[in-house]
Amino acid sequence: MAKATIATIDPREAEHFGKLAADWWNPKGSSAMLHRLNPARLAYLREAIDDHWGGDTAGFAPLAGKSAIDVGCGAGLLTEPLARLGARATGLDAAPENIGAARAHAEASGLEIDYLSGEIEMLGGRKFDLVVSMEVIEHVADVPAFIAGLAGALAEGGLMVLSTPNRTMLSHLAMITIGEGSGAVPKGTHDWNQFLTPDELTGHLADAGLTVTDVRGLGFSPARGFVLREDTSLDYLVTAVRA
């Protein structure tokens, strides 16, 4: 598949995407919650990478020589850090507007990232050492098919890292009643009934031929913001490998 570049975008669209990218990457904009989540997610991701590949925990490029895909990448808030960690990074998102914003920001940042618009099925057999999908699975229409697609994109010896909200009263209160009710999260972002419990997600991963190697909670501390913890009642992260 040919690599798409920002040069293929119409100038009027580029202007539109530039404005969208500015909002996506604004820590106080509509994606503010994702910005606040990112440090904890990246800390977990770095730990998982080091544990899986046994690399230098003090190194700056633990993904050097490896390929990585961020599925449901939005405007690249997680994809760009993957590239900075040394990966040959690909970002995939179903919304063309998000991909336009992602390409514009990567170009401005001097990063070479292969951004694709479409469903995971469009990868056509491509394999990646690292498959990441954060806060996405709760939005898909067919969870088993989506996970099967993620598993199909995972190379032998590769690593998968997912995150998603748990389906608990706490997550409903925090993300919908308070988050969406206060405007901190855009209204209509979440459908609580689509949230997955760790047991449900682990079962889906097993059905796709994967083994979960770690489950970690993601919680909120008034003093520290989002932090990693054992309690999975709000949100959680999962690492998986081929069974």
Instruction: Give the rounded overall mean pLDDT.
Output: 84
Shape: globular
Rg calc = 17 Å
The helix/strand order is HHEHEHEEHEHHEEE
Helix content: 25-40%
What CATH architecture label applies? 3-Layer(aba) Sandwich
Determine the CATH topology. Answer: Rossmann fold
Sketch the major β-sheet: 8 strands, mixed
The side-by-side strand order for the widest beta sheet comes to: 3-2-1-4-5-8-6-7
CATH superfamily: Vaccinia Virus protein VP39
Number of extended strands: 8
Protein structure class? alpha/beta
- Helical segment count: 7
Task: State the separation between the terminal residues, measured CA to CA.
Answer: 29 Å
Strand content: 15-25%
What is the topological layout?
Blueprint: H1 11-24, H2 32-53, E1 67-71, H3 79-84, E2 88-93, H4 96-109, E3 114-117, E4 128-134, H5 143-152, E5 154-165, H6 169-182, H7 198-207, E6 210-221, E7 225-229, E8 235-242
Parallel strand pairs: 1-2, 1-4, 2-3, 4-5
Antiparallel strand pairs: 5-8, 6-7, 6-8
Structure, briefly:
With 243 residues, the protein is α/β, with parallel strands linked by helices.
Description:
The chain has an 8-stranded mixed β-sheet with strand order 3-2-1-4-5-8-6-7. The chain is globular. It is built from 7 helices and 8 strands, in the order H-H-E-H-E-H-E-E-H-E-H-H-E-E-E. Helix content is 37%, strand content 24%. Helix 5 (143-152) links the parallel strand 4 (128-134) and strand 5. It is an alpha/beta fold and 243 residues long. The chain has one domain (6-238): Rossmann fold, CATH 3.40.50.150. The longest helix is centred in the N-terminal third of the chain and has 22 residues, at 32-53. Helix 1 crosses helix 4 (96-109). The two termini are 29 Å apart. The chain has helices at 11-24, 32-53, 79-84, 96-109, 143-152, 169-182, 198-207, and strands spanning 67-71, 88-93, 114-117, 128-134, 154-165, 210-221, 225-229, 235-242.
